[in-house]
Amino acid sequence: MEGLPRLRLALIFSVVAYLLVLVRSSSPSSPELQIVSAERRIDLTSHIVRVYLTLKVENNGNSPASEVLLAFPPTQIDHIALVKAAAVFGKKKKKSYLPLDVNPTDLPDGPNGTKYFCILLSKPLGMGESITLEVFYTLTHSLEPFPVEISQSETQLVYYRDGAAILSPYHIKQQITLIKTPSTKVESFTRVEPVYHAGTEIKYGPYSEHPPYSFSPILVHFENDNPFAVVEELVRELEISHWGSIQITEHYKLVHAGARHKGVFSRVEYQSRPSFSGVSSFKLLLARLPPRVHSVYYRDEIGNISSSHLRTDSRKSELEIEPRYPLFGGWKTTFIIGYGLPLQDFLFESPDGRRYLNFTFGCPLAETLVDKLTIKVVLPEGSKNPSAAVPFPVEQHLETKYSYLDVVGRTVVVLEKKNVVPEHNSPFQVYYEFNPIFMLAEPLMLASVFFLFFMACVAYLHVDVSIRK
Ligand SMILES: *[C@@H]1O[C@H](CO)[C@@H](O)[C@H](O)[C@H]1NC(C)=O
Ligand SMILES: *[C@@H]1O[C@H](CO)[C@@H](O)[C@H](O)[C@H]1NC(C)=O
Question: What distance in angstroms lies between residue 352's CA and the mean position of ligand 2's atoms?
């Protein structure tokens, strides 16, 4: 008879659970958010598009809301390199920001293939409450050159596509969009009244009472003579030597991703009329390196390139490099930069006794987009249990590298990320355990090799001598 009470209890539980399910499914959409006011600033002055959104979100529903959704058209989603969000407290000068987590989210019922990012609020937004959010995101490969091909004397025109109003799953009461162009030369833009163009700014709105998922496509055609510097592939190898330095080797595959160059390249015209000729090409690249770099070199497949200038001060080093020929739209070049850094600036000991490297992620070239970045951290021989801490999702795996005198090989922590923008240049750490006895391995090995060689010589001489006798 012992089983009976248990059975009754189980029965009660399942009835209660069933009732709960009923209650939940019958109550209509729980938190009901709306955007009271929204401002969007789209910065098109570079070849990387940067968008700043300020949203005042209000909860009109009957339960607290713990997340806010951002919607993106399917054509934009693959070009998003980074999305950041923060809650804003206080007004004007006393503003403070609380960074919030943002994650891509799959919702099955997005109209027209809408994709979402979800902002997790630090504390739920109660009924009738409102919060101000600031969102920042970057879009890559989103300016389309038109005309597709230009000659050396032409300027570069591009298209940018978006919506006049912000795409959102929520009702937006008041909104405005400001688009900033690099110059006043705007060929055309879609008119969605009220729209206003002055100087380098196009203003869409204010629009009021837009229902969820309102979308009115716009096309802006404007001049953008920025060098579209895209590194198709960058491999950075950081080799840690406990003997005092970090050696860095960076392999670049660079392309000018702007309008393709047509016709022949005239160096005479290029050099005699620099302000009219090849305005969107680039002849200089700037690499920002850490302070105290040494043994800097810059070479391509032909050999060392001497036309580079290094300026250093106590905070940073700037390496100005000049490829062998100026780069026009569609042209590619590959090159290698190498440098050494003092170990004590980047290698530290954590409280638990492990060592860690603290270095900057991303690409040292200014205002450059990297399609595929690989960072390889080569740990000293004998390192154990490596782990990496990167502030955004990256792919990770381990490899082993052998260099001369290595016995067991060096562990290499490999970090890979696609679609990297300058905003990804933030510190990351690689932790590992290391027994200092391993530092003696190579000298000991060398010493024993010499000793054996010496012994062999002695033995040989000894034998030799004994024969002659
Ligand atoms: C290139 O320059 C670096 C550093 O100055 C030097 O170590 C290297 O030997 C040079 N290589 C060639 C091929 O000249
Ligand atoms: C890494 O270095 C940055 C500055 O370059 C510093 O702000 C940060 O606190 C360091 N992180 C760790 C874990 O030491």
Answer: 17
